[in-house]
Amino acid sequence: MDAGSVVLGLALAAVMMFVVARPFFTARGVGASSEFGPGVTLLAEREAVLNALRDLDFDYALNKIPMEAYLTQRAQWVARGAEILRQLDAMAPPETAPLPKLAEAEAALEAAIAARRKIVERPPSPTCPHCRASTSANDQFCGQCGRALAAQCAHCGHALERADRFCANCGTAVAVKEMRHEA
User: Fold this and answer.
1) What angle do CA 83, 89, 90 make, to 5 degrees?
2) Quick check: is 110 in a domain?
3) Total domains in the fold of the chain
């Protein structure tokens, strides 16, 4: 075995030992939730209190615990739940009025949506794919160049194939009368 292999093996072993031993030397405790924050911890505690109350009510309904114990335990759990809710309310940011920029952005967005809907509702007039001359929806041949016209979607004007049952552009169902034969 040459020296390069030994050095490489020792370096690899040192890196592996570091990776394996690293969790043992971190400062996090078992119950610490530093990466989530106090809000998540309080929400988890709230769920635990609700589950405990549900279990307590279920046990009382099955006559597993006497009424005196039920009342005292329920009062303790309700008090703990109220304290958690108070802490959660204290953490919540105060509600503020919407910013004027947000209202302007919403108005601009609504205007853009309305303009888009207006464009979609008005299908374009059909044109010849060869010479771009304007044609009627019922034409089978172009009046300008005389070539056969392909079928077009009545909703968006997209060219249709013979086997199409739905428009590939807008998804509208294709009526049988729209399917003109190409000559």
Assistant:
1) 90
2) no
3) 2
